[in-house]
Structures are given as structure tokens and as C-alpha cells.
Amino acid sequence: MQILSIAPAQTAVPTTCRASALKRSLPRAQITINPLPIKPRLELGESTRTQIANLNKLLEKNAPQHPADSPNVTNQNEQQTRGVFDFDGLDLTGIWPRWWNSTEDMSPRDLNDLQRLLSKSPQHSPRDHLGERWAEYHGRDDWAGLLDPLDDNLRREVVRYGEFVQGAYRAFNSNPATSAEGGPAACHVDLPDKGYKVTKALYATSSVGLPDWVDDVAPDLGWMTQRSSKIGYVAVCEDKREIQRMGRRDIVIALRGTSTCLEWAENIRASLVPINDVEPEPQAQPKVECGFWSLYKTGRDHIPSLSETIVGEIQRLIELYKGEELSITVTGHSLGAALALLAADELSTCCSHMPPIAVFSFGGPRVGNRAYANRIMENGVKVLRVVNAQDLITKVPGMPLEGMEDLPWAPYSHVGSELRVDSRSSPFLKPNADMACCHDLEAYLHLVDGFAGSDCPFRKNAKRSLVKLVHEQGSNVKKLYMSKVLRLNLENVGMGASIPSCLPSPS
Known about the structure:
- The protein is an alpha/beta fold.
- It is built from 19 helices and twelve strands.
- It has helices at about 20-25, 45-60, 75-80, 95-105, 110-115, 135, 150-175, 215, 220-225, 240-245, 260-265, 290-295, 305-320, 335-345, 370-380, 435-440, 440-450, 465-475, 480-485, and strands spanning about 5, 30-35, 85, 195-205, 230-235, 250-255, 270-275, 285-290, 325-335, 355-360, 380-390, 415-420.
- Strands 4-5-6-9-10-11-12 form a seven-stranded mixed beta sheet, sandwiched between helices. It has a three-stranded antiparallel beta sheet with strand order 1-2-3, with no helix packed on it. Strands 7-8 form a two-stranded antiparallel sheet.
- The longest helix has 23 residues, at about 150-175.
């Protein structure tokens, strides 16, 4: 640190003042230097170090002395004039901006944080003991008081259920083909939580098909046109310590988003269809989107419908663990979020002793009309929708403008509580990130991990690794951080895993 004293004004000036400010306020000021070695607190570039070193040498030189006002100059005054130079002779305008920018750009703390977030060994927020409060975190009170600011335990639970959906994506991408002749094949799922065990693979079947000549044109992409595809799985917690931590045995139903052409075709069938044969007044009749309902209810000769599989497996598990405290958590992304709502609604009415049911959805579209939303709430299903404010998918089908869904004549309506995040709040993502990034599941988990509250900045202590985000959304990551990734030579960290030959999910 340099010790500065100003003469002749003898007014203390903070050392953090910029040179330009000193020059304007003290046109003929003289600075007495008590030379000490400069110890930069931050890692600077080579060129910046050289310029600062030259500046240090310049400051240590004896500048030309001004004529004394009095002929009698004491030795003490001569001693004080050593190291004095004319400030007008020093132009820092070309050096200071680069020094200033460099300290912000190259902050070791930022680089260390970035290197930690790009580590091969991802860190997780601590899992606290939920115990008797598990029902509160499972939505018993609609997550009142837990969403804004976001409760730390709830944040970890939301991210954990999102990772179950990522497991459904990986299971499909690893082997997307489905045999039309045989029944559902065994499904290997790389679960994020090793305390859970997969008990059933889930398949969804489209009610529409494409002409046979499509397979002749692109035989290697037959999985894109197949009618039935792996869309998720059912898993149950079997780890005793995890059961004790959560306060109950948890059954998870995880459902991925759109990944095949026929699933896309079903998505755009946006007309509303009734979910039962009862015909009450039109306004009071629960209706859902035709395409979602088709994927949920359609089956084939050797592959039962998604509805039949889920209901049958859950009933089996409830009987198997009869007498234990259970919960059912249905989680999904995009199309999977819509199917999760349909599954939770049906499960709530399939037996009289059904455990508490909660839905954790990410980037989910609207599914049904207001009567359907009321039906779900009346059946006791708790729904937490994680929504990115920049995600267009959460605004369709129906009125794409916020608030219009509450109008009496609006065809579609959301249901449940909302946890709203915003991709523009992330210090790593570009504020104009494209539509694919705003809807990406990993981007959602990144935003939830960094969300503290609607009036709070992105969490400084966010722990989720950036490897997957950089790998999948590199074009939407700010150039500053991408350049640091390259500078750290970490662009391939954690990315050595083989990428499936099939196309990534359009979601």
C-alpha cells in the first residue's frame, strides 16, 4: 500500500481516489511518497503487471523540486521534498481503466468459484433432516412461507426431483428404440440418488402414426417415428437412512419431456377433450388437452398405456409397503410435467387409502381448463410448478399473456403453487438467452439452485456444477465466463462421457 500525503493543502485524501479526480481538484498538488512494495491483491495480466511496475519505479524517482518560497530551507524540509514529483507530469488515463477492468475481470475469487463449479465432483446443498416436517415440504400447506424467500431444504428437494427427471432423459437417450413386437424391455436408469431403486419402466404411446415410407427414407432414425417410447420410470426409496431423513418412504414417478416426432405431433393437438363420460354443464366439465390425454391413455397390443402402468405399479407398491408412512411424488419436465399432472389426478381417485400426492413440475405447459384445475385441488393433489419467466412453453396452450388464464372464458388454466425463477438473474447466462435455453431442464436446476428470493440476487454460494450447463448451453453462457473456462483449460471437464448417437431431446 502507498502512504500518500498531499501538500500544500494538507488535506487527507483516500487512497482509493482515482488519479483523474486528484488531478482536477489539485492542479499543482505534490504527492510525497513513502515507498513500499506494491502487492497487488488480485491476479493481473502480464501487460498490466508491467505497467504497474513501471509506475512504481516512476513514483520512487525524485521529481524536480519547485523553488523554495523562503531562502532558509531546513534539512527537514529537504528531507520531506525527497520523492516529490509534479502530478501533472503523470498521465494515468491510459493505465487506470485497464487496471480497473482487469481486477474485476480476473478476480481470483471469481475464478476459484468458477473452477469449483466446473469440478468433476459436483457439490450439493446439504440435506437436512426433514423428520416430522416432511409433509410441509411435500406441499401439505401448498408450500406457504417456503417459496419466497426459498427455503434451503425445499430448494434441495426441488433440485433432487429435477435430477430424477434427468435420469429419465438419460434412460431414453441411452437406448431410444422400442420393439413393436415385444413388450416393454427392462430399463436401466442411472439414478441420481442411489438410495432409490427402479421398480417399473414407463412407456407412452401416440395415437397417431407416420407413413411407412418415412422409415425407408431415414432407417437410422426409426426411434424418432416410433409410436411407443420410454418416457420415465417408477422408483422407490429403499435406503433406511434416507427414509429416516425424509420422515417417510418416498415413491417417485419421473417423466421426461418431448423427444420424438410423434410426441411433438401430439403436443400441437391443442383442442380440449373431457376426461370422463359424465356430461355436466359445459363450464363445469373437466377437460384436458387432446394430445396429452392421448399419450397418457393410448396403449398397444404388447405395451399397456402409461395410465394403466402407473396405476397398477403404484397400487402394487402401496400393498407391498402397507403399514408404512408413504408419499407419492410425481415429477416431470415439459411434456412430462403435463403427464405428471394427469397421473397424479388419476392416482388420487384410484383407491381410498392413497398416500399424499405431490407434483413437482419444471417448465410445464397448461394442461386443462379451470374445471380440471379445480378438480385436482379438490382431490387433494399438491402441485408446485417451477417456472422460468422467460420460458414460452409455460404460457401455452391457451392465452400466451400473463393473467389472461384467469378470465372466465379462458380455455386453459394453470393449477397449483408457483416457484418463479428468471434466467436473466443468472450471472452466467446471457440476458437474451434463446428459447431452448430458457426451457432447458439443466438451466432450470441452475436457476433454482441460485434462487434465494424474488428481491434477492443470485446466490453467491450456489453449489450446482456448471459443467452440464456449459456443455449443453455454451452458446447462451456469457462470453466472459466461456473465456474463463478456456483460460482454465476446463472446457472438457466432466464432458468425457460418451454422447448418444441419437439426437438430443428437442426440449
